[in-house]
Design a protein that fits this description.
With about 575 residues, the protein is of the alpha/beta class. Helix content is about 30%, strand content about 20%. The strands form five sheets. Strands 6, 15, 16, 17, 18, 19, 20, 21 and 22 form a nine-stranded mixed beta sheet that branches. Among the domains are: about 60 residues, Urease, subunit C, domain 1 (Roll), CATH 2.30.40; about 130 residues, Diaminopimelate Epimerase, Chain A, domain 1. It is built from 19 helices and 25 strands.
């Protein structure tokens, strides 16, 4: 059936009128400050939701008079604060689920630090739960947060756990692993085995003997191939648990940064599609395919494939390693150990990463590159300059993940190119003392996560956890970005000139993070027409002492106007 243009226009207007019929809101919130994070940074008294979208923000009298009906659910905030649901722009859901949900979780973000002996004892306790033919698989050891400092595991240490059961432990950074001799035997990795491509290293001692230390994820593959795979039920249960844990922090949109990095792109895409087909995800997801999982440069997944709930938007590269793990690529050597000449290495040659990134860029994918060290940042910015040369005005929102060790000229170049960094603010919190006192020295440490410089240069930045590298908690990110206090006593502010205001930090976990994910048209602020993704907080972070913002309790979250059930 065909309609005349005027009739079609009238029909569409009628549909809109029904969809957002005044006087018939599904839910109205009032009774506490509502922080909109709009362009004027306004706080309002009331907010109305209909069919999952925000239809009104303003005074209580105006909103209730215009939108409240007999069947409207009215939620009295009772002095608590309503904000946009937080946007977490860099997580690894499946990796976190495997490491923390299915493996032995050795992460320790509290004080005191573990010792090598306490870690070995924890592994021995867990050994009794390993089934016959199984592996002891764990995650979360961190030499930079171990007593004594940089006490690192090796194959001999893990042989103390077991000589018969293969042991594979991943460092907290995710970029380093440790195995015992049984694991080396089963994986077929010997002193003569060449290093895998993509930056992987089987570390050897001065005599050419394997130490049991692995560098970069490509070096894990030989071991993972021999480990029993989790059942579908085990994996899906762990993923659901991770998603609910993330949602409990007030996050309503997350960015999965390594789709395909564990089980291949097709399987992991299918996992996510299955979860959303069952309406089983408590958060929206924006996905980035892991570049090393699609070396051909081609995939059946198309750029921007999906909908407002689940969408695949980018390709993720890893150009160097971990700064606290001494594998990030720096322009000058680390300051640990004393008189070190080691400055890390790039995972790709310049021409190699450019050629790969260009193939995906030309297809329409957003490009995201992990670059911790300033040498890696230089390479990434050079690559991005070439990618943008033919289309300098295109809105591509290229990303750099971490941007940890940097200089002022790199900030200026990034802003000029429209590049948006996402900072692992936990580098300041959990590792600030180690960076300052041992690993890179005060001059470089004070510039870690240079939010202040990006703000002054007119650029955007976002804050993230990189879970499982550090815990998800946007309120903690806000608190840390404003105070920049490191955790280890005596506490000090690491580069206080890189701190920003509370409002700037809030934007980094709401509207600016949404912008980075090409989702600012639907989430990130409380404005008419946007999805009703909300978080209810015990207190208003704008009226709370910055050091105490991290302690504010999350009282509830809503996605598309529906409260998330975390049970």
């Amino acid at each position: 059936m065909k309609f005349a243009p005027k009739l079609l226009s009238a029909l569409l207007m009628a549909q809109c009128a029904v969809t957002f019929a005044k006087g018939n809101a599904d839910t109205i919130f009032y009774g506490g400050p509502i922080v909109t994070v709009n362009a004027k940074n306004e706080e309002v008294q009331a907010l109305a939701v209909q069919n999952g979208k925000i239809v009104a923000v303003g005074t209580k009298d105006a909103v209730t008079k215009e939108w409240q009906a007999d069947n409207t659910k009215v939620i009295d905030l009772k002095g608590q604060t309503l904000m946009p649901g937080f946007v977490e722009p860099h997580v690894h859901i499946i990796v976190t689920s495997v490491f923390e949900g299915l493996g032995l979780n050795l992460s320790n973000f509290t004080l005191p630090y573990d010792t090598k002996e306490s870690l070995i004892q924890k592994m021995k306790v867990a050994l009794k739960d390993v089934p016959a033919g199984g592996w002891l698989f764990g995650f979360g050891v961190d030499p930079s947060r171990t007593t004594p400092f940089m006490a690192e595991l090796n194959a001999d240490d893990l042989d103390k756990v077991s000589k018969d059961v293969p042991v594979f432990i991943v460092n907290q950074s995710g970029h380093i692993g440790y195995v015992n001799h049984k694991a080396l035997e089963l994986a077929g990795v010997t002193d003569q085995t060449p290093n895998p491509k993509g930056g992987g290293v089987y570390v050897k001692d001065a005599k050419g003997k394997l130490t049991g230390k692995l560098i970069e994820p490509p070096s894990y593959l030989a071991f993972m191939a021999k480990m029993p795979a989790p059942t579908e039920a085990q994996l899906m249960g762990a993923i659901q648990g991770t998603m609910k844990k993330i949602a409990s922090t007030g996050v309503t949109t997350v960015s999965e940064m390594s789709v395909g990095g564990n089980f291949g792109v097709d399987k992991e895409v299918a996992i996510y599609k299955s979860i959303f087909a069952k309406n089983a995800s408590p958060v929206r997801i924006r996905g980035y395919l892991f570049s090393e999982s699609i070396p051909s440069g081609k995939t059946s997944i198309k750029p921007n494939e999906g909908d407002d709930q689940l969408r695949f938007i980018g390709i993720k590269y890893i150009s160097d390693g971990s700064t606290q793990g001494l594998t990030a690529a720096l322009t000058k050597p680390y300051t640990y150990p004393k008189n070190s000449q080691w400055s890390g290495e790039l995972d790709f040659k310049d021409a190699e990463i450019y050629a790969s990134a260009k193939s995906f860029f030309d297809q329409g994918w957003q490009i995201s590159t992990h670059a911790n060290g300033d040498k890696a940042i230089d390479q990434t910015l050079a690559t991005y300059s070439k990618l943008l040369a033919d289309n300098p005005k295109q809105d591509r929102r290229l990303r750099i993940e971490h941007f940890t060790i940097n200089n002022e000229s790199q900030v200026k170049k990034a802003v000029k190119l429209g590049v948006i960094p996402s900072f692992t603010i936990g580098h300041v919190d959990y590792w600030g003392a180690a960076f300052n006192n041992h690993l890179v020295g005060p001059d470089r440490a004070k510039r870690i996560d240079p939010a202040g410089d990006f703000k002054r240069a007119g650029g955007k930045f976002t804050l993230h956890s990189d879970t499982p590298v550090s815990p998800v908690g946007p309120l903690n990110y806000i608190s840390e970005e404003v105070t920049r206090l490191w955790q280890l006593p005596p506490q000090k502010a690491l580069g206080p000139d890189q701190a920003v205001s509370v409002d700037d930090a809030i934007r980094a976990v709401t509207i600016d993070a949404a912008y980075q994910l090409f989702a600012d048209n639907i989430v990130g602020s409380l404005e008419v027409g946007k999805q009703a993704d909300l978080v209810l907080l015990e207190k208003n972070p704008r009226q709370t002492a910055p050091a105490d913002i991290r302690n504010i309790k999350v009282k509830g979250t809503w996605v598309s106007g529906k409260q998330v059930n975390l049970n």
